[in-house]
Amino acid sequence: MASSQLEKTYDPRTVETRWSHEWLTRRYFHASPQQPGRPYCIVIPPPNVTGSLHVGHALNHSLQDILIRWRRMQGRNTLWLPGTDHAGIATQNVVEKQLMTEGLSREALGRERFVERVWQWKATSGNTIVNQQKQLGESCDWDRLRFTMDEGLSKAVLEVFVRLYEDGLIYRGERLINWCPRCLTALSDIEVEHEDTKGKLYSIDYPLAENPSIHLTVATTRPETLLGDTAVAVHPDDERFQHLIGKEVRLPLTNRMIPIVGDALLVDREFGTGAVKITPAHDFNDYEAGERHALPRLAILDHHALLDAAGLRRAGADPTVIDQLQRLPVSKARPKVETLLEERGHLVKVEDHKMAVGKCYRCKTIVEPYLSPQWFVKIKPLAEPAITAVEEGRIRIIPEGWTNNYLGWMRDIKDWCISRQIWWGHQIPAWYCLSCNATHVIKTENRIAILSGASPIVSKTAPASCPSCGGHDLYRDPDVLDTWFSSALWPFSTLGWPEHTEELKTYYPTATLVTGLDILFFWVARMIMMGLKFMGDVPFKDVYIHALVRDAEGKKMSKSKGNVIDPLHVMNEFGTDALRFTLASMASPGRDVKLAEERIEGYRNFANKIWNAARFALMYLDGPRTALPPAQRTFPDRWILSRLAHIIHVVTTELEAYRFDRAATALYQFIWHEYCDWYLELIKPVLQTPEHQDGASTRHTLVETLEATMRLLHPFMPFITEEIWQTIPHQGDSLVVQTYPVVDQAWTSPEVEQHFVLLEHTVGLVRTGRVLLNYPPGQQIAFHIGHDAPDRQLHLDQLQQHITHLSRGQVRVSRPHDWPTTRLLRLIAEGLSVGIPVAEDVDLQKAIERLDKQIAETNKELQRIDGKLKNVEFTSKAPPDVIAEHHGRVQTLSRDRALLADSQQQLRAMLGV
RNA sequence: GGGCGAUUAGCUCAGUGGUAGAGCGCUUCCUUCACACGGAAGAGGCCACAGGUUCGAUACCUGUAUCGCCCA
């Protein structure tokens, strides 16, 4: 194997392109139920089809790929199932924007042509993210790529909808829902993002009907909805207002009288004036209060969230008021109403006030509570088994801390509004017979409104005729389902459900779900509910929740802030392996990932280090290689095997615990600081000596450990490991399908590891001494080493050749007090002594300072331990082994101190001080 | 308002009831035949604060402060 095969610096780009293509060609990632091994399946959280790979995906996908590649190498029947989500509102918005640039609109195109247009868009742009995923090296079974609007998945959606409807778990009804006046659709509760903003608290006088000179002062943050008030509430126990309950007030700006009610739930006596208005059609709390007191609902905003003239008329507003307010958006109506109230003497005061506004999670427009007929999932019956599954540990959430979050939300869950008034998505399989619903289906010029009392025919296929009247004039519900409805079915719909496929039998329940916290409720909770309902079993056993990726300052990445790290750019600059390793090493549970480019650069350097270790190995591989039993190998070989066994155990254990960060750190530490810094240095004398007696065995160990290390690292850094593995001696076609290393007990040797620590300390002291005395690295020096403990002294003797090599000098091992008493710098650590001769012209200042410092430190430490040992409480209560350890340390440190003092004295004498 | 998490080296973060750790950055030295994307040696910390438990607390408990997240 010629060394010229590997360039001096690792160039990720060509390697990555070559292997990502090659792996796919060889179909290593293809899974089938017929394959041997215990199944291990992960379904990918399907990225939006509109998406392109951002760093959040990169984290999410890297972690999954690590798990998948690791399990595949362990011999499991591994399936990582990829796909994309049709992302109803998001995708519709993207295509609408595109239409706008062409001077077109959704409405102008009409529903059918618009949907066609979205499919077209999907065909050309929908694969962007998939290609980027392949670039990241994701070992998905791409043959099984799914899309939430695939034929099969759509069939699953229909099946689920109809069955839930038949079970009474889906219903249609008029409720107050969250409405985005820009997207013109309903949203579910969790699709609304709450944001604190500066607002005002208005105090408004409502005159008492029986005596207008008396006012009830009401506090509100939304005066513009005042015209829709249908009552005023006070706390029933509030002595200030108790006597008013049951009386009426005149609603300002209108001709209406509204009642004063007592409501302990709605009213906080401490807040504002202690009296609040009730506007059931425009506030969720008021809606519920309205239910409690059987109040009418008066809607005064239309679906664009503009003040509606017809609504205002119904609400009895003054004609002049209607004139001034109609067609105003909320933001303009609010100051206008303020002015009107002030002019008419109703406004008492206005204070600054912090308030939360809800915004559409897709377009950030302020959402309005809006009264309209919608479809809902009755969720409690579905939630209960989903709660139990987690409580009983059939699903494990990792880190555990999120379990309570999940349970709390599930126990307090509200019915799920699933209808969306958009066009892109699964159209609801419900039809209305126009003759049976004559009064409930209202056709206006460009809209058909289906009122809440309409009775739908729910069916997987379009009914030929109305089952009750036989009529053929059927109209399909225009609404589509919430995107998250289809993603809730993802773990089984992608495996072929409702058909009874081999895939379902083999891979369901899936093993692990890897996801960010942001979609725990959107997605994870709903998958659990649907999985339990339709498969009778949990959809996955472990849910691993990782953190959000933020920028180096900890800020959320966003295009508007310009702080986005583009993973593709990073992959291009530093290599995909470097990015993957960075993300893995930063994935500590419960903490957000603050990503800085320097960090990635550091792991790029790591990749290069590995690359050069491989180059080094290849340089010296010529010649026979012989496998000896571990116990018969050289000290460096035995040591690295022992360390390798240890690191295999650590990485495997940490991966089992989803501690990607610790597994990555351990690998980094082992490869760089043990394998490269020490092992490769230790074996150089053997490799560089032709015909060395240990040559064959050393070369074998070198390959054996390097090859195993590549396998161990492969899930984290698939590209560079594959490239190196292919270059060094190996058996098999690809690293992807090799077995993951397991610990060989014969490798482990605590004794050898102990000897190594002694070696490491000795070499460290010599190097320190070299710097202190300004001896250049190339200069050979003769020095003494020795140890307090006789057995250690013996070990030093055995290690002599290695110490010689690593410290570039001639070593004499002897008892420290036999050493010369002049012109010798003694360095001491825990019983170990190194003595370096001091040449004539050396500046001793540094050495003396160092000794001073160490003596001071040793004294301090001795004092501390001594203090403890003199404490009767400690000696009587601490465990004996701890006390013994303390005594041992006192002994060692005292001896160290004596020797250090001695050495210091010598040096001072040399200086003539 | 409720819940959760964080606070450890200049920065980003691990960690443990008994000697405080890493990466990056910093200082000094070194182009030595794997690697300067490198090597060697260093500097740098009342482990947020105040109580408590304990022979012993950075770690366990309580409270405070600051920051962040989720929910309302």
Write the SSE topology.
Blueprint: H1 12-25, E1 39-43, H2 55-73, E2 77-81, E3 83-84, H3 88-101, H4 106-109, H5 111-125, H6 128-135, E4 146-147, H7 151-166, E5 170-180, E6 185-187, E7 192-207, E8 215-220, E9 231-234, E10 248-250, E11 257-262, E12 275-278, H8 284-292, H9 309-314, H10 319-325, H11 330-343, E13 347-360, E14 368-377, H12 380-391, E15 396-398, H13 402-411, E16 416-417, E17 419-420, E18 430-433, E19 441-443, E20 448-450, E21 456-458, E22 474-476, E23 480-481, H14 483-487, H15 490-493, H16 502-507, E24 510-516, H17 520-535, E25 540-546, E26 549-550, H18 567-574, H19 576-586, E27 593-594, H20 597-619, H21 635-656, H22 660-688, H23 695-713, H24 718-727, H25 750-772, E28 781-787, H26 790-807, E29 809-813, E30 824-829, E31 832-837, H27 845-870, H28 872-877, H29 880-911
Parallel strand pairs: 1-2, 3-4, 9-11, 15-25, 24-25, 26-27, 28-29
Antiparallel strand pairs: 5-6, 5-14, 7-8, 7-13, 9-12, 10-11, 14-16, 17-23, 18-21, 18-22, 19-20, 28-31, 30-31
The structure holds one RNA strand of 72 nucleotides.
